[in-house]
Specification:
Length: about 210
């Protein structure tokens, strides 16, 4: 077996072990995220006619702009996306490190779920089921297969820190756990930066390629 394959298997084993050890926390965070998505969908489906019209106009204007040879400035988009993703990572790291900020972490995860649910529901309501699903996959799927697990993992890391400190309040233990939380958060921040590149250079290119079919 090649060294690269061995490393890949080792990384997969580490990820599996991490999830198994923190399965309860992942379930809690995932449920909060899913509730956020459902609330976003419900919100869009229950807005008044004027708000529905505004949402539809915004999405249609965006699509028409792309159809009329509008070019996406990848440098500007990449910079803003990286900044936004890093801000989320830093916020989850810092709030998770304060221990008492765990409810805020839940809130951030819920809001991200709400935003995703709102966006998907708005697209489907405007373009119809099949076109909406295709548009959603092209614009949202690829970066989110990295982004979503990363923010969930960051939230779980904060919960793990809280749980560890409750068990052992010695100063040495607190320092060790915060250090682990920081290293883990830094790794997730790098993954979120990768997610930004995927969004800009894969999702955006797919969108411009597929836009003529909408």
């Amino acid at each position: 077996m090649k060294k690269q394959e061995k490393r890949s298997l080792k990384i997969i084993d580490i990820i599996k072990e991490h999830i198994q050890k923190n399965l309860k926390q992942y379930l809690i965070i995932s449920i909060i995220f899913i509730i956020g998505i459902l609330l976003g969908v419900i919100f869009v489906n229950n807005v008044n006619t004027n708000e529905q019209k505004e949402i539809s106009e915004y999405i249609n204007n965006f699509i028409n702009a792309l159809k009329s040879d509008y070019t996406i400035d990848t440098n500007v988009l990449l910079k803003s996306t990286i900044i936004n993703n890093v801000i989320i990572a830093v916020a989850l790291w810092f709030i998770g490190s304060t221990v008492v900020g765990i409810p805020i972490v839940y809130g951030i995860i819920g809001v991200r779920g709400f935003s995703l649910g709102y966006t998907i529901a708005a697209i489907v309501a405007t373009l119809g089921t099949w076109k909406g699903i295709c548009f959603g996959i092209v614009t949202l799927f690829f970066q989110n297969i990295i982004f979503i697990p990363c923010i969930l993992a960051l939230a779980v890391s904060g919960m793990k820190l809280y749980k560890s400190i409750l068990k052992d309040k010695r100063k040495e233990n607190i320092k060790t756990e915060i250090y682990r939380h920081t290293i883990f958060s830094a790794i997730m921040a790098i993954c979120l930066i990768i997610s930004a590149f995927v969004e800009v250079y894969i999702s955006s290119n797919l969108l411009t390629t597929c836009i003529s079919f909408l």
